[in-house]
Write a structure and sequence with these properties.
alpha+beta; hypothetical protein PF0899 fold; binds zinc ion
Length: 122
């Protein structure tokens, strides 16, 4: 399953970013940026993440998904726009030579970490 690999990758990225000084890390929330062209099914990703994060500091963390629109630029006239439909033709000059500027990303943007060793004094 495509989403399981992604879930494992997210967990790996976050775990490797937790500083060693945090004794009992618990991740509350993970912010992701997912391009609309990355073909990730968010519900399926949430499910995989829930299963894969068991017994890790990420168990029970909330996934906050930010969808990145697909942006393209026409190679002929330089027109830039956001693609809503899978029509890859320049909206201005109808040219078919495009560069995709965004829409394929899948990034861990940030995450919220708490150290359960400390008091919950925020
Ligand atoms: Zn154009």
């Amino acid at each position: 399953m495509h989403e399981m690999g992604i879930a494992l990758e997210i967990i790996e990225i976050v775990r490797s970013s937790i500083p060693e000084s945090v004794k009992r890390p618990r991740v509350e929330r993970v912010h992701l940026k997912i391009g609309r062209l990355s073909a990730v099914v968010t519900d399926s990703l949430r499910f995989c993440f829930e299963v894969a994060s068991e017994e890790t500091p990420l168990a029970g963390a909330e996934l906050v998904v930010d969808e990145i629109p697909v942006e393209a630029q026409c190679n002929d006239c330089g027109h830039r726009w956001t693609i809503d439909e899978p029509v890859f033709v320049c909206a201005s000059c109808r040219g078919g030579s495009l560069t995709l500027l965004s829409g394929r990303e899948l990034d861990v943007h940030s995450f919220q970490l708490i150290d359960e060793e400390n008091d919950h004094a925020h």
